[in-house]
Structures are given as C-alpha cells and as structure tokens.
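From the thread on structure requests for the teaching lab: each student submitted one protein with a one-line request. Submission from student K.M.:

"Model Kelch-like protein diablo from Araneus ventricosus, tokens only."
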Amino acid sequence: MYNVQLTISTKRGKGARIDIHKLVHVNSQDSLSSGSLSTLDQDEFTYVEHTHSVEVSLAVLDGYIYAIGGWDGLSRLNSVEKYNPSNNTWEYVAPMKISLTSPAVIGHEGHLYVTGGAVLEDGDGIDLVQRFCPMTNVWSDMAHMLIARSGSRACVVNNLIYVIGGWHASTENTNKVEYYDPEKNEWRFCKPMLERRYQPGVAVVEGKIYVSGGEEGWDRYHDTVEYYDPETDQWLIAGVMQTARSWLCCATLRLPVDIRIKERS
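Reply posted by the TA:
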C-alpha cells in the first residue's frame, strides 16, 4: 500500500496536507469548485461532488476533508464544509468566527487549526489562530501568532505546528517561520528561511521540512528548494527546480519496498 502526503493548491488559496490513501484534486477556475478523486491502487480518477467556494483551504482530519473559508465570487467566506469520501457528500459544520482567504490550515490531534489569512482586498494577513473541535462543533481562539500573515503554509513535525512564509504586510513577503506548541498554547520563532516565500509548496520528509518555490515579490518567483532540520535549527538549500513557480503543489510518496528495490537495481 502507498502512503501519500499531498499538498493541494487552489488558484488563489492555500493547499493543505492530505495524509490518506485517496487524493482530491480541486478545480478552482469556476465559482463552484468541482473535483476528482484518485484511488492509488486503482490508478484512476472519479468525479466527486463540488464544494461552494474558490480560494479555499483544505485540511484532512480523521478521514474527512474540510474546505475552509474561501471566496464565492462576491465576498470572503467564514463557512466550513466537511467531505465524506465514503459516500461522496459534503455537509456544513460550524462557521469560523471570521471570513478568510489564504490561511494556513492543518489537522492535528483531533482538531483543525486555521492560522492567519487575508480579510481585506490588499491581502494583508492577520495573526488570528482558530481551532475547531469536530466532537463539539465549536471554534475556539488560541494564542495569536507572533506576526500576521496570509499565503503561508502549515505542517506538523514532532507534535509542533509550523507556519512558514507568507505575506506579512502590504509590500513584504516574509521568510519568518514560527511554531506552535498545542500543549503550552504558545508560539516561538525558529530560524528564518534563506529566502522570502509567499505561497510556497511544503512537505515533510523524514522529520525535515522541505519548502519549494514561492514568490519573493510581485515579479520574482523562486526555483529553489530549501529544507529545515528541527534538531539543528538550520535551513539548507536542497536543490533547484527546473521551473520557478509559486502556488504549487507538493507531495511525498513512500513507495512499497519491492518498487524501491526495483528502482535501485
């Protein structure tokens, strides 16, 4: 069986790490987002029911896919929908306390975390952190981030939630990285990235955070990939992509042992 972690990016929204055996691909060109479902062991795509927004953030928690916030063509949304892959249906859960596009979202230890996001047309971020409990259908405010940001990325390493890059202010993309300890409800900075990156791709491989692409500014896109080692608190360049890009998707794929042996032979 394959084990996949996938980051999905909508046209203007945040991608979210998918850690299940089925992949959802969202089409954000229309006001209603349709999608397709790929089952790895069958190597085929099947149409799934659409959600009701674009610029939407996705996260997976306990086998369900959540579509969080976004844009309906007229305004930002605070609504949240939950997708059940077993019966191909969406249902609404409790809305967020504030309408957002481009937050960084992650599912962790039975909760959804929504960090930052844009609330105004200029895209400036906020430092708000909202946590959703599916068991009670209630949103709670957690400790605010150390800086405001939108268009950042989130991931989990060693039970800490990292929020990476994004748009800090009207003219500043940021290289700053901070992490959240859910047990202590507090944020701390770690070492910043080597480059400023807005809407990069992020994936976790063997305990290290890999960040690829993203925007340095309006007219500069990165082709570099750098990685962070939490044990040493250091960022290093891992390589260079053939094409500079932002708003990209990243995935890590753990191949079965027999395939790895065949590739090495």
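TA comment: The helical segments are 257-264. The two ends are 21 Å apart (CA to CA).
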